[in-house]
Amino acid sequence: MVIITLFSLFSFPDEGIGFVRIPYLDKIAHFTFHCFIIVLGTLAIQERPSNHSGKKKPMLGLFLFSVAYGIVIETLQFVMPYGRAAEIWDILANLSGALFGVLLIKKYLSLIEK
User: Fold this and answer.
1) Where in the chain are the domains?
2) Any idea what the Cα angle at residue 79 is, between residues 32 and 7, rounded to 5°?
């Protein structure tokens, strides 16, 4: 989370890998980060021996955390003078990634329960 926060708050020179320009790379990164928050968070919670809360409660909590975290980051980008700009499209990419993460982890958990 610290690395995601740093990447989200500070500006970097170019979008792309070497000489290859990748359009909407920042939106892909937002989507991926928030998808991983849900997937890795749910897997970590499921592995705890004291987890008796089922699957829905941890996923809902992680989803709400992911959405709130994304909004806080965008608000900080708006306020801080580090060359980053807050965008509604980033929030939508965060939300999409979190939703995809929920769908992905639900599918995975249903497959391993069979």
Assistant:
1) 2-113
2) 30
